């Protein structure tokens, strides 16, 4: 069977994730010796956990760690998810990072083990070397002729290197691509002949004088030498899951856009694994073990845990990072209680890193970072109030109040958020403690009352 990797189409589907609550995080904020800086790349404090994360990351990057697992354990809103996001940001762009929340495993239209297998295979990259034919040179002229109706376009592209110059005929697709990339005369570009993908390398030095078409970030490059058409070795990384999907469906890589991948047959996976092993032997491919992050891991059940145990021992296993805010909790699917809601045999394979509640000055810094990120100005008084409010509520509640208070402030036509706005927002939105009090107060009028004796404890912030 022919196994394809979808090459150029796939390179366009990069990670398109928007993480609102953690968008201020740019990395782990460690120096070269892996020592955490107090406040760097959006992360504040939590030094031990960040250092541990950095050490693990280093091992991942060196390809030394696979099939291991670590667990972030700590009270709610102590930065477990935040640190995992920081790890994702500091991995190289071609090291896969997959993030799932344990409950997703149950809500997909497939079996739990299939969902986990897919998550595992998303986190294993295959770095593939391929030869492709490209056109590389400096654009001399682009000439576009539109038909009267504008429906069809034809054109000519003149492109040169220091040694030669060639004119190519352009079709509608190429013209659109050139327009989309805003290619102008004087740009040095690369065109992938099979996919038609255009990459702008920069402006030619020869044109550095005509500064009409430049922004501040314009990059200058030499006009290429030699032949315009050449063969080039390209290296790109796809995940095993992507290879699975492309080969399992007639519509191929389009299924990846739709996200509708369905279950994949084990035979197909075996065939792909064999093929990848072949490529490795021929020196055409390398395995890049990535990271799989499972948030709220106590939501998995005993079947999933036993699957994890097995999967971690497989030949192709990523680094698995888990996070949980539970102390002693029932293992889902059993009657037993266990630390963090994880069975002991899994815990045994896991490196545990704990996160601790923040000090007041750390909270203040985190609040300030979030204000910057959300583009909200707080008066110094408001920052003080919000910081002390955090001690009574939680960090996450306070961070949520920032944008609510801004809406309140805008209503009284103020650009700055002051203490009054915070107060008002605090009245509108309850935190967990007040909500519990209110529940007690309204006892009996809400449906679903308590169940005796099965309470799991969330790790305490105090
Ligand atoms: N050290 C930190 N530096 C900067 N921001 C942080 C830090 N720790 C937490 N935050 C921010 O505080 C908020 C809550 O943190 P986070 O979501 O990581 O908590 P968590 O430990 O995953 O909690 P839970 O157990 O409830 O999932 C997030 O917006 C996060 O980005
Ligand atoms: Mg979390």
Any chance you could write out the topology, listing elements then pairs?
Blueprint lengths: L6 H6 L26 E2 L2 E2 L2 H15 L7 E5 L6 H11 L6 E5 L2 H4 L4 H11 L1 E23 L6 E8 L4 E6 L1 H9 L6 E6 L5 E7 L15 E2 L7 E11 H9 L5 H5 L7 H16 L3 E5 L1 E5 L6 H11 L6 E6 L3 E3 L6 E3 L4 H4 L2 E5 L5 H15 L2 E2 L1 H13 L2 H17 L4 E2 L1 H10 L3 H10 L21
Bound molecules: adenosine-5'-triphosphate (ATP) and magnesium ion (MG).
InterPro entries: AAA+_ATPase, P-loop_NTPase, RuvB-like, RuvB-like_C, RuvBL1/2_DNA/RNA_bd_dom, TIP49_P-loop
Catalytic activity: ATP + H2O = ADP + phosphate + H(+)
GO molecular function, one term: ATP hydrolysis activity
Description:
There is one protein chain. By secondary structure, the protein is of the alpha/beta class. It has 3 domains: about 40-125 and about 235-355, Rossmann fold, CATH 3.40.50; about 130-235, RuvBL1 DNA/RNA binding domain (OB fold (Dihydrolipoamide Acetyltransferase, E2P)); about 360-440, Helicase, Ruva Protein, domain 3 (Orthogonal Bundle). Helix content is about 35%, strand content about 25%. The protein has helices at about 5-10, 45-60, 80-90, 105, 110-120, 170-180, 240-250, 255-260, 265-280, 300-310, 345, 360-375, 380-390, 395-410, 420-430, 430-440; strands at about 40, 45, 70-75, 95-100, 125-145, 155-160, 165-170, 185-190, 200-205, 220, 230-240, 285-290, 290-295, 320-325, 330, 335-340, 350-355, 375-380, 415. The strands form 5 sheets. Strands 5, 6, 7, 8, 9, 10, 11 and 12 form an 8-stranded mixed β-sheet that branches. It has a 5-stranded parallel β-sheet with strand order 4-13-14-3-17, sandwiched between helices. Strands 1-2 form a two-stranded antiparallel sheet. Helix 7 crosses helix 9. The longest helix has 17 residues, at about 395-410. The radius of gyration is 27 Å and the shape is globular. The N and C termini lie far apart (about 60 Å). The protein binds adenosine-5'-triphosphate and magnesium ion. Magnesium ion binds near residues 80, 81, 295 and 323. It is an enzyme of class 3 (hydrolase). It catalyses: ATP + H2O = ADP + phosphate + H(+).
């Amino acid at each position: 069977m022919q196994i394809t990797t979808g090459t150029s189409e796939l390179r366009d589907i990069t990670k398109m994730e928007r993480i609102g609550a953690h968008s201020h995080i740019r990395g782990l904020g460690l120096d070269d010796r892996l020592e955490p800086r107090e406040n760097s790349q959006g992360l504040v404090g939590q030094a031990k956990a960040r250092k541990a994360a950095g050490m693990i990351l280093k091992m991942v990057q060196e390809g030394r760690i696979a099939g291991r697992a670590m667990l972030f354990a700590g009270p709610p809103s102590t930065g477990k998810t935040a640190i995992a996001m920081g790890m994702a940001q500091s991995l190289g762009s071609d090291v896969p990072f997959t993030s799932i929340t344990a409950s997703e495993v149950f809500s997909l239209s497939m079996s739990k083990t299939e969902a986990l297998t897919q998550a595992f295979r998303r986190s294993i990259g295959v770095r593939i070397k391929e030869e492709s034919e490209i056109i590389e040179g400096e654009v001399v002229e682009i000439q576009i002729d539109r038909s009267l109706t504008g429906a069809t376009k034809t054109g000519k592209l003149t492109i040169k290197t220091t040694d030669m110059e060639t004119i190519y005929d352009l079709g509608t697709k190429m013209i659109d691509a050139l327009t989309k990339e805003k290619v102008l005369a004087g740009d040095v570009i690369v065109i992938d002949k099979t996919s038609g993908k255009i990459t702008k390398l920069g402006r030619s030095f020869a044109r550095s004088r005509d500064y009409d078409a430049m922004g501040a970030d314009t990059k200058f490059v030499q006009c290429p030498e030699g032949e315009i058409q050449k063969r080039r070795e390209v290296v790109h990384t796809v995940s095993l899951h992507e290879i699975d999907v492309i080969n399992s469906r007639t519509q191929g890589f389009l299924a990846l856009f739709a996200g509708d991948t369905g279950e994949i047959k084990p035979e197909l996976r075996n065939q792909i694994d064999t093929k990848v092993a072949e490529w490795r032997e021929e020196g055409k491919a390398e395995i890049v073990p990535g990271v799989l992050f499972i948030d709220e891991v106590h939501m998995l059940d005993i079947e999933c845990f036993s699957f994890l145990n097995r999967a971690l021992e497989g030949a192709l296993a990523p680094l698995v990072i888990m996070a949980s805010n539970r102390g002693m909790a029932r293992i889902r699917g059993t009657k037993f209680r266990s630390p963090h809601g994880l069975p002991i045999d899994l815990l045994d394979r896991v490196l545990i890193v704990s996160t601790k509640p923040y000090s007041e000055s750390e909270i203040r810094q985190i609040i300030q970072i979030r204000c910057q990120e959300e583009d909200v100005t707080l008066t110094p008084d408001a920052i003080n109030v919000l910081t002390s409010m955090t001690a009574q509520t939680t960090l996450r509640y306070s961070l949520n109040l920032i944008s609510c208070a801004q809406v309140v402030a805008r209503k009284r036509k103020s650009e700055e958020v002051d203490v009054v706005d915070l107060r008002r927002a605090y009245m509108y939105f309850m935190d967990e403690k007040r909500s519990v009090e209110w529940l007690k107060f309204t006892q009996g009028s809400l449906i679903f009352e308590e169940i005796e004796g099965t309470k799991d404890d969330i790790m305490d912030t105090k």
